[in-house]
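Check my protein:
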Amino acid sequence: MSMQNVLKQIIKDIITPLFKKNGFKKSGNNFAKVFADFTWTVNIQLSRHNSQGEVEFTINTGIYSDKLFGTLNEWNPPSFPTEKESVLRARINEIKGESDNWYKLNSHSDVEKLKEQLQSDIVTVLLPYFEQFQTMNDIIKELEFREEQGIFENPHHITILYRFFGSMDKAQNRIKKVYLEQELNSQKEFTKELAGRLGLTIECVQ
């Protein structure tokens, strides 16, 4: 049996049942647990270098919000939210505090041991990690924390979430601050346009 087929079987026998048991829906190699205002998202990412004899894969996570992405991109929300469209994206190794280390499968692999590792990582690491995001306020706080740590996220994410789930005053103050800090005219123009969508104002500052 090729290693690619072994992985398909692992996803079917181990990964999918674990996520479904915990309220996630599945589409391809994507999983989503939908709440009122946001969705926990998971993606099983396969290495583009995979072959019949050897495969590598990892688990990516994120938090998706229709309100956030609908406002920012002016698109219809996807029928199935995915990790690629999410904020607070993190790989399983980041959550574990490890360097970028993919799961590997080849003819020398102990498949049962890998299954145990995956089960442990999902049950004791990934699901507890998601549990910290119970409300939109939890998500806002984590975005604020990451920004303080210098971890890049689109600066408009927090503004939009303030506007719809937090304080109008905070949203207003933040969009002015972001506008003043931007250097490119294209960025400033987009920020003005976004302010209009959000019912906020930017006084023209030269």
